[in-house]
Write a structure and sequence with these properties.
The complex is a heterotrimer. Chain B is an alpha+beta fold. Chain B folds into two domains: 96 residues, no CATH class; 188 residues, MetI-like fold. In chain B, helix 5 packs antiparallel against helix 10. The longest helix of chain B has 37 residues. Chain C is of the alpha+beta class. The longest helix of chain C is centred in the last third of the chain and has 18 residues. Classes of the chains: A mainly alpha, B alpha+beta, C alpha+beta. Chains A and B meet through helix 1, helix 6, helix 7, helix 8 and helix 12 of A and helix 6, helix 7, helix 8, helix 10 and helix 12 of B.
Chain lengths: 332, 394, 658
């Protein structure tokens, strides 16, 4: 086991290096740099920029240095906990991202919880009642969320929440609570706004979850021990709950690692539409304005989270389920 | 189970003259025989049939895909026909009875008024005169698949009337026709994209599973790296580097390629793991002992075995691409007008005006939902059926 | 409809008086705020009263300059109000807070509502021979932190910044140069400075009054701590390191962005100053206690205590506006949101107004005379081709379909409201005449056509005109869709190619685009003394002749020297205009330029005069019913002095209780 852990940890190093190189190439690939997009934005509103001054700014921002040098400055900085500097905000990346992490976490965790709560019973029901109309109907409902383009659903819900409940449009709380200390009213206001993103992002994720609960449970239900238990007259509910369900739920553990980054990037579009103060819109905006260190460090962060997450869930799975072989499957 | 020919005559009451048949007790009924003797694809089909939702979904999808072959014929109007007098016209319902009398399918015309106070074009149906629809008729000119000129339509607007089943947009273009033409782009994007993914997955998954060792390791790491990236930013950056001077067709292919390039990792993993586990099966061992080379084992014995499973997985990946296209369009990075796809149409509906004033602009969401749902059900059905000897779900 | 008509009528009464009259070379003209004679008894602002009581702030009469600027409310519909209330508005990005510099619009010299230049931060200024500018500050005027605003702040800018090699390796800003010549700068006394050149400088005052103005003064008391010549080297070095700048110049530059309003500590002269550090979702601007304007009842302006900027995605700003989540909004809402807003108006407590725009064209096409392709370049440079394209646009249809017939059809030229307007400038080659267009194209020898009826270029390629768009507004794509139908009838096939803003610009600059689409002239109501720079090749971002423009912008160092007679003429005329002081002569030059433009069709305008919705909360007063919404001149709401907008008593109380 220890050897396995060490091996996995060692493999992470080249993976992360490769990721950082790809991230850097990716943020450099689109034509132009931050100044180009900034100037274009100014010009589109009729503001003018002196070309001579642009050259000065380019030097100040370090765009005149060779790419390789820019990469190493960034990569080595990250090792020391310095994620670079956001041009857009004129602040270190960590300061820019900082405030948003908590709300992102809040939205993501609630969303995942929501998706589990919805998909779990549906998955169990449709596995135990395979090919019944109930199975079809519930799966249909679960999949509807996946099938509806999120951004449209978000906009429609937003509008109707305003017309029907008078909820202020967009955001995670009424504007007067922004930057205020937490209070009961503020929590209420957050709850009032939170359900829209949770429903929109959550329903998009339920389909996959339902499918996996159903498939895994179906697998287990065919096993000999279940048939034996049934034959011996164990109550049907107990038959399902005692063992098959537990085994079928292993995948929750194996998925936990990749879940969070997935939810963060998957919810980005919805967050843009809903104007949520989460990291998603900031990531998209930084990519768009080519605020390269902000975008790069963001991507790096998400990728690293995934890599670590996968590692943790692999280890957890190995600990939970001794049947899983640690050494891969190649015997020949 | 045996494949040796047997005498089908039932044994008589006296001692049989024929040779001793050790399996006479386990004789298969014709049903059983049909079952055990059936080729794999037939078994899959039988199993698939049990998933009624999947069968219906398959039929619907087939209809959708057939429709894109003859979009020009199905659409009542040409894609580019504008009606300056009918801007933001609401959907015209089809009626059958006029003043209690059966007239056949017809529509009512519009009375038009421009509300200058709020600058809104108001249309009210004028129920005084029915305009019967024409079927299999001559209407707007088009070039079939951009080549053959024609005018023949399945349904045409009435003589000196209009037929906007789903209303019109801000330039007075018929939404139904735009939807039908948009299907051509949106549906093929999914298929092309998955083909690219599929080829990549077969290649990388195949050599990883086949060669094993360090090649497997490298490919595994590559997949891991790719999977560590959130999809959306990757799409965004890749879409941003498509050269803008490409023609719309190339942009379309480029977007497809991008969608395909990121989707293959999951499939490749299944290819690899299936390949690894099937190699352990007895029949693979048997083939090896009989002296078959690895290539033959993979190509002849292993591949057919999990092909169906792969196809099922691929089917499940298509809706992701269709939705991906709409998401990219939303970000302004995918296809853009004048190309018409469902994503483009939805993006045009993505504003408060559509929600509040012109809700019919959001109708393209309906085919998107239908296609995504049906692909999912079809894929589920296929996956359930893909392993026909196994009675379980997966 | 009736209301719209009356609005249009009052709009045409829009008069533009002469801006600056340089009729006689010898005369010295003094521009002063004549109303500043009687100073009313000052009343302490309730919002600041507690701070005054605690002794943190001096009383109001000590905070305002000795000679404050007294605002009178003599226009109909305006009146003096009471201070108080929070004004909320929506912006799409944190960096949009720079618009508070624009809305605040406190400038040394500013445009008034009739677009005359008047002293604002300055008590008065004198111009001699159009080349010697003497600026008189208000004695006792203070920065928002209470430090005095003096001639030293001008000297710091000129000597320590614009002449400093490290801070400004690119030299002084362009409006301060006349044919490359730097001004002579003198400090006359504590409150008087003088800039003089040997030639008239026509760009100087308009630049000071711009929406994004030329800043020729700095809060020197604050910035000196970042300047190598004044700061302690060790402290400075530590600060540079801490803020991860390359050198002290970078640090100085960061701390000194007056326009961007992103440094809450930077002293300002604007009516409100920012109190919120980036990053934030909600920015709070608080009244400047040392602001220089007062009303006739002795209230210090601004009336509104705080301006609160809420950040929301640009796409949902119209929806939020319709839900009455803003008190004053024009940005991020467009003409096509009018219907939605007007319907929402019935449910909520706001008013949707239509303000006019003064752009030369809402959308205009720019044939790229610097195109790389030699064949296309020749075609685009042929005036017959440009005329034919213009004639083949059905402007009336576009107006009806997209603008409800409310826009005005015509070329990208000066508007009716300009004293320089003549109908032929707007109508030249702007009627819809396919026959004439076809005839012109035939005359050019482009008679060969392919099977689609598309004409062939001289080298046999089909005439497929690809129009670059910045890919941001559906309005542009819609207009192009409409144009493409009628162009096809003239044998020209149009394709639109959407891209992104920066790619769009770069393609034009590099001569890769054939035609591009953008909005027209930014100031289409000039008078004889307004610079005609926009009409002549002067800058790289002129989409029709980017390389010619660059040639003049860089004084011939890069770009391409114009080799088309019309363009050379325009450059010569622009030069002639700059070197004369005589208004009549200038008017004559202007007419020559306009005539040349309408004949040459260097840009193809489609429609102009499209109105813009402005949403105003019913409790917010003094916002004009009908106004002009323009960037420069105009500064969006700036010329209407948002510091004079006030809230009703009910609203003031509500905001106070929160």
């Amino acid at each position: 086991m220890i050897r396995y852990v060490i091996q996995r940890l060692l493999i992470m190093i080249p993976t992360l290096i490769a990721i950082s190189a790809i991230v850097f190439i990716l943020i450099q690939l689109p034509p132009g740099d931050y100044l180009d997009s900034y100037i274009a934005e100014l010009q589109s509103q009729g503001e003018k920029v002196d070309p001579k001054k642009i050259k000065f700014l380019r030097e100040q921002y370090g765009f005149d240095k060779p790419l390789i040098e820019q990469y190493f400055v960034w990569a080595i900085g990250m090792l020391q906990g310095d994620f670079g500097y956001s041009f857009e905000y004129g602040l270190p990346v960590t300061d820019v991202v900082g405030d948003r992490v908590f709300l992102t976490f809040l939205v993501s965790v609630t969303t995942i919880a929501f998706a589990w709560i919805v998909s779990f019973p549906i998955g169990v029901y449709s596995a135990t009642h395979q090919y019944s109309w109930g199975d079809y109907g519930l799966t249909f409902l679960g999949f509807l969320g996946l099938a509806t383009p999120n951004f449209l659903l978000a906009l429609v819900l937003l509008y109707f929440a305003n017309v029907v409940f008078g909820t202020s449009i967009g955001g995670l709380m009424d504007p007067e609570y922004i930057d205020q200390p937490w209070s009961f009213d503020k929590v209420l206001s957050v709850l009032e706004h939170l359900w829209i993103p949770v429903v929109v992002i959550g329903t998009a994720g339920t389909a996959e979850m339902i499918r996996r609960v159903r498939a895994n449970l179906l697998d287990e239900l065919q096993k000999q021990y279940v048939i034996t238990a049934r034959a011996k007259g164990l109550a049907p509910t107990k038959v399902i709950l005692k063992y098959p369900l537990r085994v079928a739920l292993n995948f929750f553990v194996s998925d936990v690692g990749s879940l969070l980054p997935g939810v963060i990037s998957g919810s980005a579009i919805v967050s843009v539409v809903l104007s949520l103060p989460t990291t998603g819109p900031m990531l998209l905006e930084s990519l768009r304005s080519q605020d390269m260190y902000l975008a790069g460090s963001f991507l790096m962060l998400l990728a690293t989270l995934t890599v670590i997450g996968v590692l943790i869930s692999d280890l957890a799975l190995a600990a939970l389920d001794p049947r899983i072989r640690l050494e891969g499957g190649i015997t020949r | 189970m045996t494949t040796v020919d047997r005498d089908n005559d039932a044994p008589k009451h006296y001692v049989a003259t024929g040779p001793y048949d050790p399996q006479s007790v386990e004789r298969l009924t014709p049903e059983q025989e049909r079952y055990f003797m059936a080729p794999q694809w037939r078994l899959i089909w039988w199993k698939f049939r049990r998933h009624r939702l999947a069968v219906v979904s398959g039929a619907i999808l087939l209809a959708f895909y057939l429709s894109i072959l003859i979009s020009e014929f199905l659409a009542p109007y040409n894609l580019h026909t504008r009606h300056p007098d009918f801007i933001y016209a609401p959907p015209q319902g089809i009626h059958l009875f006029h003043e209690g009398e059966f007239v056949g399918p017809f529509v009512y015309g519009f009375d038009y008024r421009l509300d200058m106070e709020i600058l809104k074009r108001e249309y009210t149906p004028n129920t005084s005169k029915p305009y019967p629809l024409r079927f299999f008729c001559l209407g707007d000119e088009y070039r079939f698949w951009g080549a053959i000129p024609g005018r023949f339509h399945f349904v045409c607007p009435p003589e000196d009337g209009t037929f906007f089943l789903l209303g019109t947009d801000r330039l007075g273009r018929d939404m139904l026709s735009r939807l039908i033409y948009g299907a051509r782009i949106s549906l093929t994007i999914g298929l092309l994209g998955i083909t690219i993914s599929f080829i990549l997955a077969m290649f990388f998954g195949g050599i990883a599973g086949y060669y094993g060792g360090w090649i497997d390791n490298v490919i595994q790491r590559m997949i891991e790296v790719l999977r560590s990236f959130p999809h959306l930013p990757l799409w965004m950056t890749l879409a941003a580097i498509l050269p803008v001077n490409w023609s719309p067709l190339f942009i379309f292919l480029g977007i497809t390629l991008i969608l395909g390039l990121l989707e293959w990792t999951g499939l490749a993993r299944s290819v690899r793991s299936k390949l690894l586990s099937l190699r352990e099966e007895d029949y693979a061992t048997a083939a090896m002992l009989l002296g078959a080379g690895p290539r033959r084992i993979i190509g002849r014995h292993l591949l057919p075995n999990f092909m169906s499973y792969l196809i099922a997985s691929a089917t499940l990946a298509i809706p992701g691409m269709i939705l991906g296209e709409t998401a990219l369009s939303f970000l302004g990075l995918g296809l853009r007008p004048p190309i018409t796809s469902w994503g483009v149409l939805l993006n045009e509906a993505q504003n408060i005006n559509a929600v509040d004033l012109y809700p019919w602009l959001m109708l393209p969401v309906v085919p998107v939902i239908i296609v995504v749902l049906t692909f999912n059900f079809l894929g589920d059905g296929l996956r359930d059926a893909a392993d026909p000897y196994y009675e379980g779900g997966n | 409809m009736a209301s719209c008509d009356s609005r249009r009528r009052s709009a045409s009464g829009f008069a533009l008086r002469a801006l600056l009259t340089f009729s006689s070379i010898a005369a010295v003209f003094t521009y002063a705020n004549l109303a500043s004679a009687a100073k009313p008894q000052m009343v302490e602002t309730p919002f600041l009263a507690p701070a005054v009581e605690r002794g943190e702030l001096p009383p109001v009469s000590d905070r305002i300059p000795d000679v404050p600027s007294i605002v009178r409310f003599d226009q109909p519909g305006r009146s003096a109000g009471k201070p108080g209330g929070d004004l909320e508005t929506l912006m799409a990005k944190p960096k949009d807070v720079r618009l508070m510099t624009v809305y605040g619009y406190a400038r040394l010299v500013a445009y008034d509502e009739d677009f005359n230049l008047v002293p604002d931060l300055l008590e008065r200024f004198e111009i001699k021979e159009g080349r010697i500018f003497t600026l008189h500050l208000r004695p006792g005027h203070k920065w928002s932190d209470g430090a005095p605003f003096t001639a030293e702040d001008f000297r710091y800018f000129w000597e320590d910044m614009s002449l400093n090699e490290a801070l400004a390796p690119f030299g002084p800003p362009k409006p301060l140069l006349v044919d490359g010549e730097r001004p002579k700068f003198e400090v006359i006394d504590e409150t008087t400075v003088r800039f003089s050149w040997s030639q008239p400088n026509t760009a100087f005052l308009p630049a000071l009054a711009g929406a994004a103005p030329l800043w020729i003064y700095r809060p020197s008391h604050y910035l000196k701590q970042f300047h190598a010549a004044y700061a302690d080297p060790k402290t400075l070095k530590a600060m540079v390191k801490e803020t991860r700048q390359r050198n002290w110049a970078g640090l100085h530059h960061r701390r000194d962005r007056q326009y961007r309003f992103d440094n809450p500590v930077l002293p300002t002269l604007q009516p409100w100053y920012n109190t919120t550090d980036l990053p934030a979702e909600r920015f709070i601007f608080v009244r400047n206690p040392f602001y220089h304007r007062i009303d006739e009842n002795g209230h210090q302006l601004p009336y509104v205590d705080r301006v609160i900027i809420k950040i929301a995605d640009a796409k949902i700003i119209p929806a939020k506006t319709g839900a009455s989540e803003t008190d004053l909004q024009a940005r991020y809402i467009r003409f096509d949101h009018f219907t939605f807003l007007k319907r929402a108006e019935k449910r909520h407590n706001f008013d949707v107004r239509l303000w006019r725009t003064i752009k030369g064209a809402q959308v205009a096409l720019y044939p790229n005379l610097n195109n790389r392709d030699p064949v296309w370049r020749e075609v685009l440079r042929d005036v017959r081709f440009r005329r034919a394209l213009s004639l083949a646009i059905d402007r009336h249809e576009i107006n009806q379909v997209i603008y409800y017939g409310l826009a005005r059809e015509g070329n990208n030229s000066v508007l009716e409201e300009s004293p320089l307007f003549r109908p032929e400038y707007r109508n030249g080659w702007a009627s819809f005449d396919l026959e004439k267009a076809n005839q012109l194209l035939d005359e050019m020898g482009l008679t060969e056509r392919d099977d689609r009826g598309v004409r062939l270029l001289p080298d046999g390629r089909p005439m497929e005109l690809i129009i670059d768009t910045a890919g941001e507004s559906t309005e542009e794509t819609d207009v192009l869709e409409l144009i493409s139908d009628s162009w096809l009838k003239a044998g020209v096939k149009l394709y639109s190619r959407p891209s992104q803003r920066e790619v769009f610009r770069n393609r034009v600059y590099a001569g890769e685009s054939l035609l591009s689409i953008w909005s027209g002239l930014s100031n289409a109501v000039p008078n004889a003394d307004t610079s005609p720079a926009e009409f002549a090749p002067t800058e790289q971002d002129q989409l029709q002749w980017s390389k010619f423009g660059k040639y003049y912008q860089t004084s011939g160092q890069s770009g391409v020297k114009p080799d088309i007679q019309g363009v050379v003429d325009l450059a010569t005329l622009h030069d002639a205009w700059r070197h004369t002081n005589d208004t009549e002569e200038r008017a004559r030059i202007w007419h020559e330029i306009l005539k040349l433009h309408s004949e040459q069709i260097f840009t193809i305008g489609v429609v102009n005069g499209v109105q813009r919705p402005v949403v105003v909360n019913n409790e917010l007063k003094n916002v004009p019913e009908v106004g002009v919404y323009n960037w420069d001149p105009g500064a969006a709401f700036g010329v209407y002095k948002p510091d004079t907008f006030w809230f009703t008593e009910a609203r003031r109380k509500r905001d106070q209780s929160q």
